[in-house]
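WARN retry 2 of 3 for item q-0093 after timeout on previous attempt; input resubmitted unchanged.
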Amino acid sequence: MKTKTLVMLLAAGVAIVSLSAPSDARRNNAEDSGDSRTTRPSKRRRKPTTRKKTRLWGMHAQMVKVCGLNEKQQLRIVELNALRREAGKKYRAQNAEIIKTLRAKIAEANRNKDKQAKKDAHTQIRSFRFKQREIDVHWQKQIMAVLTPEQKVQWSRYQTMLSVMRRFGNVKLTDAQKTKIKAACAKFTKGVNMSDKKARRKTMKILAEYIRKEILTHDQYKATTRPTGKPTTRPSDSGKSTKVKKPA
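OK item q-0093 returned
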C-alpha cells in the first residue's frame, strides 16, 4: 500500500515538472533572442515640465491668429490676463458689502416708492462699475502694448471689420458682400490711426455709408435706413452718383 502511494506521488511530481518546463523553456528562448515581450518594462517617471501654458481664449485667441503672435507674446498676454483677473477679483471683494447695501437700498426704495433714493443708489453702483471698467481698460492697454506696430494695425483693421459686420448683421450679407466689405475695410482704414477715437468715428461713418450705398441691395439698404417719411431710394438706384468717396 505504501509503495503504491509513493508511486502515485512520484508520478504527480513528474507531471508538474513536465508542465512547467515548456514555460521555462519559452522564457529562456525569449531571453536568448532578445525578445522582451514576456518581461514588463520598468515605468519611467516623467520629468516635471517647466513650460508655461500659452493657451488663450476668446478675443485673445483670435488675436493670435489674426496678428500671428509668437510664443513669447502669448506668454506675456497670459500673465497680463492673470493680473487683470486678480485685480478685478480684488476690487469686487473690497466693495462687495457696499454693493450689497446699495442693492438693499434700491429694494427698499422700490417698496417705499422713493424715486430719489433709488436714483442715488443706482448712481453709486454705476460709479463702482465704471471703476471696474477702468481696471479692465488699463490691463487691455497693457496687453495691446505687447503687439508690434504692424500687429496693432492688423488688429485694428480686424476690429473695424467686426464692428461693420455686426452693424449690418441684420440684413443677412452674402459671402460676396462680406468679401467686398473686408476689402473696403482694408482700404478705408489704410493710413488711419484707428486707435484715435475721432479718426475711428469718422472712418466708420464714411465706411458705413459706402457699404450701404455701394454694396447692399436696395432691400438691404431700406432695412438699414431709419424711417423719416422720405423715399428710401438710393442715389445709385436713381442713376445719380453718390457723394461717398470710393476707396482708391
